[in-house]
Structure formats: structure tokens, C-alpha cells
Amino acid sequence: MTAVQIVLMCALFMVGVMPSMATPPHFEILIENASPYFSPSAATVTTGTPIRWDNPTPTEHTITHDGCITDGPCAFDSGTMPPNERYTVPSLPPGLYPYHCRVHPIMRGTLTVTDSAAPPRI
Ligand SMILES: [Cu+2]
Predict the structure, then answer these.
(1) Spacing, Cα 62 to ligand 1 middle (Å)
(2) CATH of 25-114, one of 1.10.10.10, 3.30.1360.10, 2.60.40.420, 3.90.1720.10
(3) How many A from CA of 11 to the centre of ligand 1?
(4) Residue 52: predicted pLDDT
(5) Could you read off the pLDDT of 2-39 as tens digits, one per residue?
(6) How far is the CA of 14 from the centre of ligand 1 (A)?
(7) Domain extents for the chain?
(8) How far is residue 1's CA from residue 4's CA, in Å, rounded to a whole number?
(9) Residues surrounding ion ligand 1 at CB below 5 Å
(10) Is the pLDDT of residue 49 over 80?
């Protein structure tokens, strides 16, 4: 094997490894035009996992924790999300987070944040 081949292999290896290192793993929720509007509409993540909402629709939406418009506390509120915009919540404490879209109150989702990963099965 020549030095050039070794360098090339190292480069290919790095390309394969780097994306996962550059982007922390996140949980992705897609906004949709039709019911149930959030995919998945009921999501469960482990605390410390960033949650990202993607808006591929041609419409403006918000990701608003219900507490922001009731008696609080307000855990997250994206503000207006134009089409093709993303909104990421870096981490949430364990709990149940019902949320909705301020523009379209019919759009509702639930986020459950758990304490830690499920215990290993024995
Ligand atoms: Cu909306």
C-alpha cells in the first residue's frame, strides 16, 4: 500500500466519522400540513437530548409550550418559524410538555422527557 493510498483511506475514514461528531444527536420532529401535524405528535426523549422541530411546510408555525399561554412556567416558545426554518431546544428537565402552534391552535403535540435512558433488559 502506498502512502497516498493510506492518506486517502484516513481521509475517507474521517469523512465517515466527523459528521456524527460535529452534530450532536438530536430528536427530530417534523411539522406537517395535515393531522396530526407533528411527526411524531407524541415523542419521548431522554433529558439532555436536543429536540429539533423542522418546518418543511409552506406556512409559518410556532412551537409553544402550553405553559407559555396558561399559568406557566413557559419551558419553550419558538416564536414564528418561517418555512424551512428549524427550532432546537437544547435540553429539557424530565417532565411532560404539551405544546401547540400559536398560529394554528389545532396543532398539538406532546413531548415526554424521561430521566435517563431505559434500563437495560436483563
Ligand atoms: Cu401552525
Answers:
(1) 6
(2) 2.60.40.420
(3) 43
(4) 98
(5) 776 766 665 555 555 555 455 568 999 999 999 999 99
(6) 40
(7) 25-114
(8) 8
(9) 61, 101, 103-104, 107
(10) yes
For the stretch 66-91, pLDDT in tens is 999 998 899 999 999 999 999 999 99
Pairing of strands 42-46, 64-65: unpaired
- Tell whether the model's pLDDT for residue 63 goes beyond 70: yes
Q: How far is the CA of 100 from the centre of ligand 1 (A)?
A: 8
Helices and strands (DSSP H and E) totals, the chain: 1, 8
Q: What spacing in Å lies between the alpha carbon of 95 and ligand 1's midpoint?
A: 24
CA of residue 28 to ligand 1 center, whole Å: 17
- Going from the Cα of 111 to the center of ligand 1, the distance in angstroms, rounded, reads 17
On the 0-12 / 13-18 / 19+ scale of CB atoms within 10 A, 32 is: middle
Residue type, 42: A
Task: Give me the phi and psi of 70, to 5 degrees please.
Answer: -105, -130
| Stated pTM of the model | 0.76
